[in-house]
UniProtKB/TrEMBL annotation:
GO BP, one annotated term: methylglyoxal catabolic process to D-lactate via S-lactoyl-glutathione
Molecular functions per Gene Ontology: glyoxalase III activity
Similarity field: Belongs to the peptidase C56 family. HSP31-like subfamily.
Any one of the GO CC terms: cytoplasm
Residues in DJ-1/PfpI domain copies: 28-218
Domain of life: Bacteria
InterPro entries: Class_I_gatase-like, DJ-1/PfpI, Prot/Nucl_acid_deglycase
The species this protein was found in: Filimonas zeae
Name of this protein: Glutamine amidotransferase
UniProt KW keywords: Glutamine amidotransferase, Lyase, Stress response
Gene3D superfamilies with a match to the protein in the record: 3.40.50.880
């Protein structure tokens, strides 16, 4: 039976006091999507509200995986993302949350998202996120009351990267917030490929890390099949 992946995306399209335009960062969804497609997984999309999500970084459409996502079934399916509250998340083998600045707007405190991630993790499925996507892991509490990220090896877009990108636009620094909830944070050189798997949690630092996150999620799911 095919493994099933649910990609959960933000519905935000602006952020910060200057209403900076944003959305899901194209390579952060397209590169993992390419890995899931190669593995012949069923890939579905959900968003927090069910409204049409937004894409950022369309200037990177020349990349082969990005172009394939835009012109194939990926973007078409993402535009029809199901509202998360209407999805039976228990049937999925993995959840994946791509980044872009958008998740920093609507994912830090979304109660349903936190409940879904906690339940999915405790049902032994895989949780993956990249760049600003790991904000979805923030404030997730397990049934014993502990934070999901506490004691876990985690990465995300770093404070150093944010200084030169969007510090004036974001509500808080993601690296600092994850660390404050007990994450063992791993920062590599700015904009370098850095993805980490700790048990069933896979995180990536930035756009360059998205492919690696996809590969690690596939490796975990394939290992479960043996």
């Amino acid at each position: 039976m095919k493994k099933k992946i649910l990609i959960i995306v933000s519905n935000a399209n602006t952020i910060g006091p200057n209403n900076r335009r944003t959305g899901t960062f194209l390579p952060e969804v397209a590169h993992p999507y390419a890995e899931f497609t190669k593995a012949d997984y069923q890939i579905d999309f959900a968003s927090l509200t069910g409204d049409t999500p937004y894409l950022d970084a369309l200037n990177l459409a020349g990349d082969p995986d990005n172009l394939a996502f835009l012109t194939g079934t990926g973007w078409a399916d993402m535009q029809k993302a199901t509202r998360l509250s209407d999805v039976d998340v228990s049937v999925y083998d993995a959840l994946f949350i791509p980044g872009g600045l958008a998740p920093m707007v609507d994912m830090p405190e979304n109660a349903l998202l936190k409940k879904v991630i906690a339940a999915t993790y405790e049902h032994n499925a895989v949780i993956g996120a990249v760049c600003h996507g790991p904000v979805s892991l923030l404030n997730v509490q397990l049934s014993d009351g502990s934070y999901l990220v506490n004691g876990k090896n985690i990465t995300s877009f770093t404070n150093e990267e944010e200084d030169n990108y969007a510090r004036a636009d974001i509500p808080f620094l993601l690296e600092s917030a994850l660390t404050s909830q007990g994450a063992i944070f791993h920062a590599a050189a700015p904009w370098s490929d850095n993805s980490i798997a700790d048990g069933r949690i896979v995180t990536g630092q930035n756009p360059a890390s998205a492919k690696g996150v996809g590969e690690k999620i596939v490796a975990l799911l394939e290992s479960e099949m043996k």
